[in-house]
What we know:
Distance between the termini: 66 Å
Strand order of the largest sheet: 1-8-3-6
Number of strands: 11
Shape: globular
Mean pLDDT: 83
Number of helices: 7
Largest sheet: 4 strands, antiparallel
Radius of gyration: 19 Å
Low-confidence stretches: 224-228
Structural class: alpha+beta
Oligomer: single chain
Amino acid sequence: MAKARKKLPFDVQVFLSTVDSGRSVSNYGKDQKVFSQGDPGDAVFYIQEGKVKVCVVSEQGKEAVVALHGNRDFFGESCLNGHPLRMATVVTMTECVIMRLEKVTIVRVLHDEPKFSEMFMSYLLSRNSRVEEDLVDQLFNSSEKRLARVLLLMANFGKEGKPEPVIAKISQETLAEMVGTTRSRVSMFMNKFRKLGFIEYNGTLAVHNSLLNAVLHDNPHLRMSGENDD
């Protein structure tokens, strides 16, 4: 019997480029809004190149960064769950190439294309697990450990494929908003991580495997939760 042809993996980017209507691709500069909290929720977005941050502003005016997304990530999918308005603001962190898929278009594609539907469902389940992990992180870990976890996630440790140790430039203010602490404490922790050899931080940011090992093995250099925390 002839050997069966090797099944090629489903390529989301190639597939989406063939969608014949309700799709557009735009270039964004750094620090540009893709959409704002309160805007109509009428499309899902797919990042072809670049990184974005998702921010939420409370009624009291306090802002928090709740997520970062990079190459081959979707965002804005809450419009598929009956939310008529955007619940967050998305701002580019680098120059970006982003595909916009109208809500009616992606609903049609999800219905008609089983491979895409399976991939998208898997992506959403993974995203939901990440949100749950973030909640546990906020509840039980010190701000120092939360910062370590954010840096590891940004460098893709724990994802399929090789980590990307060099992270796109990100401000300490943004890191502080993600971790839920002050910029001064982030600065202190970053300097500490650098002295311990966990990171290189001089203009660009490189994350080493040693930081992952410290988190996984509960290294005493990283304080236990609750000890002199914010």
